[in-house]
Design brief:
- The protein is α/β, with parallel strands linked by helices.
- The chain has two domains: 15-263, Aspartate Aminotransferase, domain 2 (3-Layer(aba) Sandwich), CATH 3.40.640; 266-395, Aspartate Aminotransferase, domain 1 (Alpha-Beta Complex), CATH 3.90.1150.10.
- It contains 15 helices and twelve strands.
- The strands form two sheets. The chain has a seven-stranded mixed beta sheet, sandwiched between helices. A five-stranded mixed beta sheet has the order 8-9-12-11-10, with helices on one face.
- Bound molecules: pyridoxal-5'-phosphate.
- Pyridoxal-5'-phosphate (PLP) is lined by residues 92-94, 118, 121, 161, 165, 190, 192, 212, 214, 224, 226, 341.
C-alpha cells in the first residue's frame, strides 16, 4: 500500500502528512521504512542496461556519488516540502552552497549578497569566489534600493539568508525576486533558519533554496547534510550530474536515512521550538540585565506575515554587562551548552564574534552590530521552564 494523494483522490496533504508520507514508494520486503542502501556501486545485467543508465534513458542507479535510493527519497521529499520540482542532496550545507554558486558563476560574473551571512558562506563569497575572478558585493538587502544600485550587466546571482544568521534580519524575498527576474538574475535563498515549515522561498519567486540539513531538517545534532531545491528540473539535473558528482560532496545514504527520519517530525519540532523561543524572548525582554534582544518577530513589519508563517527559534541577545561578565554568564550555564550549530533538540548558545562568524573582519562585525558580547541562542525542545531557570541562575552572576 502506498499513498499518492493525486492517484488516491485526496486533497493536497498538509505539511506533516507530506513530511511523513510524501512521494511514497513501495519498500523492499514491505518494510515501513526504507532499508539503508550502504553500497558504493550498483550492478547491471548487461552493457545495454549500463548504457541506458549512463545516458539517463533509464533511472537505474550507477554509483552512489551520482545517486542512491536513500538520497533520492530525501531529495523527493525536500522537493515536496519546499514546493520545488527536484533537489540535490549534499554532504553538508556548505557543499550545497558552494556547489550551487560554482554552478551559476564564471570568472567575470558578479554576485550580490546580503551583508549578514553565516561565517563560512561569507568566506566562500568574500574570498574564495573572488579568487576565481568572480566579482562580489555585499549590501544591505533589507532596502531593495541598495540592490538596484548594486545590479550590473554582469550580475548573475543574488544570495541571501532570511532570517539572517545571527542578526535575524528579514529580507523581502518576493521584492528581491521581482527585481532579479527583470534582469535575468538568479536568486538563491538559504532557508536553514525558517525551514519550509515556516517559509517557502521558491513560492515567493526565489530560483534555488539551499539548506544545511545538519540543523532543523535532521534536528538531532547527529548528522551533517545539505540540499538544494529548485522548480527548474533541468538546472537540478545539471547541478547533480554536472557539478555535485564531479566536486564529490555527496550525502552518505546513512545520513540521508537519518535526515528522512528527522523530517517526519519537522513540523512538530518547529512548533515547539518556536513556542519555547517566544517564552524565552518574553523572559529576556523583561529582564533588567538584558540590553538587546534580536528575534524576527521583534523586527516584523506587516509584509513578513505573508512571507513567513512563523519566526523560528533562534534568538540573539546582549547583556547589560561588560565582556568579562558576559563571558561568566555563559560559563555558568548548565543545561544550555556552549556549541556552534543550531536546530537541535538541545538548547545551544555561542558567541558569533569568536565562533561562527570569525571569518568576518572584526571592524565589519562591529559595523554590522555583531559585538563581542552578542550571544546566539538556538532554543531546543527541553521544557521551557528549565531553560529559563538555567538562564535565570546564570544571570545572577552578572
Ligand atoms: C545559515 C547556515 N547556512 C549554512 C550552514 C552550513 O551548514 P553545514 O555546517 O551543514 O555545512 C550553516 C552552519 O551553521 C548555517 O548556519
Amino acid at each position: 500500500m502506498t499513498f499518492n494523494h493525486k492517484k488516491d483522490g485526496f486533497k493536497k496533504p498538509g505539511f506533516n502528512t507530506s513530511a511523513i508520507h510524501g512521494n511514497e514508494d513501495k519498500k523492499p520486503a514491505n518494510s515501513l521504512n526504507s532499508p539503508i542502501f550502504m553500497t558504493s556501486t550498483f550492478t547491471f545485467d548487461n552493457l545495454i542496461k549500463a548504457e541506458d543508465a549512463f545516458s539517463f534513458a533509464s533511472d537505474d542507479y550507477v554509483y552512489t556519488r551520482g545517486n542512491n535510493p536513500n538520497l533520492r527519497e530525501f531529495e523527493r521529499k525536500m522537493s515536496i516540502l519546499e514546493e520545488g520540482k527536484d533537489s540535490v542532496a549534499f554532504s553538508t550545507g556548505m557543499a550545497a552552497i558552494s556547489t550551487v554558486l560554482f554552478s551559476l558563476l564564471n570568472a567575470g560574473d558578479k554576485l550580490i549578497a546580503h551583508q549578514v551571512l553565516y561565517g563560512s558562506t561569507y568566506k566562500l563569497i568574500a574570498s574564495i569566489l573572488k579568487g576565481y575572478g568572480i566579482e562580489t558585493e555585499f549590501v544591505d538587502l533589507k532596502d531593495t534600493d541598495n540592490l538596484k544600485k548594486a545590479l550590473c550587466d554582469n550580475t548573475k546571482v543574488i544570495y541571501l539568508e532570511t532570517p539572517a544568521n545571527p542578526t535575524l534580519e528579514l529580507i523581502d524575498i518576493a521584492a528581491v525576486a521581482e527585481i532579479a527576474r527583470e534582469k535575468g538574475v538568479k536568486v538563491v535563498v538559504d532557508n536553514t533558519f525558517a525551514t519550509p515549515f515556516f517559509q517557502k522561498p521558491l513560492s515567493l519567486g526565489a530560483d534555488i533554496v539551499v539548506h544545511s540539513a545538519t540543523k532543523y531538517l535532521s534536528g538531532h545534532g547527529d548528522v551533517l547534510g545539505g540540499v538544494a531545491v529548485s522548480k527548474d528540473e533541468e538546472y537540478i539535473h545539471n547541478l547533480k550530474f554536472g557539478y555535485m558528482t564531479e566536486f564529490g560532496g555527496v550525502l552518505s545514504p546513512f545520513n540521508a536515512w537519518l535526515i528522512l527520519r528527522g523530517l517526519k517530525t519537522l513540523g512538530l519540532r518547529m512548533e515547539k521550538h518556536q513556542e519555547n523561543a517566544r517564552r524565552i524572548v518574553e523572559f529576556l525582554l523583561q529582564h533588567d540585565k538584558v540590553e538587546k534582544v534580536y528575534y524576527p518577530e521583534l523586527n516584523d513589519i506587516s509584509g513578513f506575515r505573508e512571507q513567513m508563517t512563523g519566526y523560528g527559534a533562534i534568538i540573539s541577545f546582549e547583556l547589560k554587562a561588560d565582556l568579562i561578565k558576559s563571558r561568566i554568564f555563559v560559563d555558568k550555564l548548565k543545561l544550555i551548552k556552549l556549541a556552534v550549530s543550531l536546530g537541535d533538540v538541545e538548547t545551544l548558545i555561542e558567541y558569533p564574534f569568536y565562533m561562527t562568524h570569525r571569518n568576518y573582519p572584526e571592524d565589519l562585525l562591529y559595523k554590522l552590530g555583531l559585538s563581542k558580547k552578542l550571544l546566539r541562542l538556538s532554543v531546543g525542545l527541553e521544557d521551557v521552564c528549565d531553560i529559563i531557570e538555567d538562564l535565570e541562575q546564570a544571570l545572577e552572576y552578572v
